[in-house]
Every structure is written in structure tokens, then in C-alpha cells.
Amino acid sequence: MEQNPPSTDSQSDRPTRVVAAMRVRYTECDPMNVAHHSVYTVWMEIARTELLREQGAVYRQCEERGIYFVVARLNIRYKKPAKYDDMIEVHVEGLPCAGVKVEHRYQIRRGDDLLATAETTLVCVNSDGRAMPVPSGLLP
Amino acid sequence: MEQNPPSTDSQSDRPTRVVAAMRVRYTECDPMNVAHHSVYTVWMEIARTELLREQGAVYRQCEERGIYFVVARLNIRYKKPAKYDDMIEVHVEGLPCAGVKVEHRYQIRRGDDLLATAETTLVCVNSDGRAMPVPSGLLP
Amino acid sequence: MEQNPPSTDSQSDRPTRVVAAMRVRYTECDPMNVAHHSVYTVWMEIARTELLREQGAVYRQCEERGIYFVVARLNIRYKKPAKYDDMIEVHVEGLPCAGVKVEHRYQIRRGDDLLATAETTLVCVNSDGRAMPVPSGLLP
Amino acid sequence: MEQNPPSTDSQSDRPTRVVAAMRVRYTECDPMNVAHHSVYTVWMEIARTELLREQGAVYRQCEERGIYFVVARLNIRYKKPAKYDDMIEVHVEGLPCAGVKVEHRYQIRRGDDLLATAETTLVCVNSDGRAMPVPSGLLP
Fold it and tell me: What ipTM score was computed for the predicted complex, to two decimals?
């Protein structure tokens, strides 16, 4: 996972965006010879995890402590296909949020080519699936 | 694949909606013990294919004839989780369209429980990936 | 999930084999325009689950009671490709076992075409991942 | 994709083994909170591709030239589970082969922990799916 020098939130000095680079897998591609549209959501999840890691938190440890994030809303606009073995970059930005929600914006790029743009809304839940405020240490 | 008696388009007597029932697979579920959010797009694709089949067309044959549909836009709102081994129903409705695009609306349900709602826009393309008018025989 | 009339174990009158029929999904296929070889393991898992269901047990309930089955060994020989939208049948047979292991044999077929043969060995474990004897009610 | 300094084949000075490192994805894990057994085949495919790349060939270009490799045989023995967010290493070795087949051996490791061992046999085929001799430039 490669990351560009992250930009930072001036208040907290924590990065609010990262770029996760990855190679398109053979099994992610379909008979049209391009990455299947469902895979973009997986790439976006990986980028969110890396953003959290840059911010000093590890999602695996969140779950071990009973803090989960579930996807409540997902919007993607696909512009150009990604092909097998392409190196792509997922740019993700965490948006200031309040309460139980976290929002992210994404650009999926192959160098200068913009392949897709997307937004997600996550909700923080406890192990019973009940919404809970995002712990302040995990705010973007 | 079970389907409810389809409703029909009065002009063409072709169904404009179907319900595709399926069982949530173990491998579709994640450590939260629920279906991963990326899988909903796969279920929606299966339902679109079954709608096309009810309308008298087979997507595999479309591709063999050089007619492809690519997803250009995807919106999903997740409301309740689907669990492993649940029987779920994907309700899909094809919307009247013009030109190169086809729109669909979805409800993913488990009986009375509404699990998610979604919309997609597909674009009809030829084997070079260029947009082309949807052949009239394939209009919803 | 369609099943042929199951053959039965004369001692217990429980079936020892079933046939699970399913349609090859678009997302299961790769740029060679055939089902990716990793997907066969998913189909085999579905067939095992259906065999267990025919035998009167539901794997989801096993896990809820702290009984898990993990795959310890997997052998597959691929003979002919499965294509998108093909209807395939996974024939699975549970073998008499003793102790902590369960063995299964598989044929993946498309009508008269034998697409693959396979065997797996599962180990019964508790929620700590420790091997435990297969509960007698779950023996094939 | 990180790779250890590859060992080389003395005759050809081409490496015969590489190590592909990767992080276990959330979507690759199942309700048991470990990587699903089907995912190991995906990791092995990635490692084979990286071995080919180290040897000077790019599998995507092979397919563009009408040279395909299909999996004919797959054996895996699972020893310890891989967990979400683990960094794992897939050690792959290409074995000397003759004719239409290529064999590989694998160890999937997490540092000192051996998670699984495996072997595959691939067959080289043309765009019609007919077996053909492995081009000498692609021999391990």
C-alpha cells in the first residue's frame, strides 16, 4: 500500500486524506475484460482503512474494542474502465462529521485518468448494531 | 431463482419488474457476521439479468452479439443487515428510457424487512466500449 | 437451490449426498469468459451446506451453538470450463468419518459434462478454534 | 507488492521463486473472523503473476497475444488461519516443466507462521482453449 504525503487537518495535525495504490487483480475482472463494478467498493474500503491507519487508528483494533463502522449510503459514478494489471490509485478524503456518521469522498484514478468518483456515509455502531457517537479519537 | 408473477408494461406486454430470490452465501458475509456491502451490487446484477430474461432476452447472448451494458451510476442506501443463510428477495424495476441509457430501481427485502434501496444507470456500449442506442428489443 | 431426490444412509435414513443446482454469476467469470477457478470452492461450500440441511441441520445454527467446520484440505481437478449463465450442478457426498474430521467428494457437472472433481477434509472446531469431535447428530 | 531478493535458475539467470506480500482484506474474511479458504487461490494467482513478472513476462500481455494459462489441478492444506489486516507472504516456486504444463509450489506464511501449503498445475492454452506448448520464453 503506497501513500502520497498526506494532507493534514490543521487543528489536529492528523491527515484527512490519503492515496492508496493497488494493482487490479485478475479475479476482480469480468468477461468484458475490465474490473467488475462491485470491486470499486472493496478498493474504497481499503483506502478508508489506510486513512484511519494514517490517523493513528487500526480498524481491526476498533472491532476488537466493540466499535464498528457500517456503510449506510454509497454513491459511485463510473467514468472509465480499469483493466487487469492496471496500477490504480484510490484518493480518499474524510469529511468533518458530527454525531454517529462519517462521510468520505473518493476519486479512483489511473494516473491522469479519472476512473470513478464516489461518496460513502458510514455509521458508527456498537456490537449490538446500535448507532453510537464516533469516539473523538477516531474523528477524521 | 424464484420470481413473483411479473407486472407488465401495457404497451409491450413485457414485464417491467421481477423479484429474484436468493440465499445469502457464507463467503458473502464478513467478520460482522452480515453480508458485506459490496455484495448487494452482485445481487442487483443477478436481478437485472432475470428481468431481461423475463423480457425475452438473455444477457449472455447480448454479449455474444456485441451488445454490452456497463454500470455508469450506482446509489445504494443500506437500512438493515442481511445475515448468512437468510433468504432475500431483490425487487427490480426497469424504467422507461431513451437513447443509450437504462435505469433500474431496487428494493432488497427479507420478507417484510426492507434491507436496502438502490438505483443504477446502465449505458449500452458496443465491443469497442462506445455508447450505442439500446436495441429496441431490449428496452424495458 | 434445487435438489435431486437424495440417496440415504441405510442406518440413519439420512441422505449422504445431494445435488445443488445453481447458475454461474457474471461476477464469478473472468477475462477468459469462464468461471474463475476460485469460485468452485464457493459452490462446493454451498453444496455442503445443502447436504447438511437435508440431514436436518442448519450450519448457521451450528455456528450459533459454537460448532464450526474449517477446511483443512482441498483438492480440485478442473476438466472443462463453466461459462457465464450456465446452469451447473454440484454433486456432493459426505463420507463416513470418525473423530474430528469430515470428508466430502464432489462432482461439478453441467448436465452430461463433467467440469471438475474435488475432495475436501473439514475439521470440527469450537469457538476457540480447537478441534472437537463432530457431534453425532451432525455425522454424515 | 513487495518481493524478497529472488533466487535464480542457474541456467537462465531467471528467478524461479518470489515472495509476494499482501495485507488480508476485510472482504476476504468470513463470519469466523478469518480469511475464507477460497481466497488463498486468489493470493496464489497474484504470486504466480509476480513470479512471471520477475522472469520478464507480463501475463496481461500473454493474453493479448493469445497465450492463456488455465488451472488444471489445485491442492491446498490449511494449517493456521489468516486474520483480517494480517500481512502475509505468499512464497511461490515454479518447477521445471515440459510440454503444455507448468507446476508451482506455494507456502503461505505470516512471518514464522506457516498458514498453508499448496501446489497447482497450469496448462497453457490458445484462445480456442486448446493445449499448446508453453512458449520457451515463459518457462520457469
Answer: 0.90
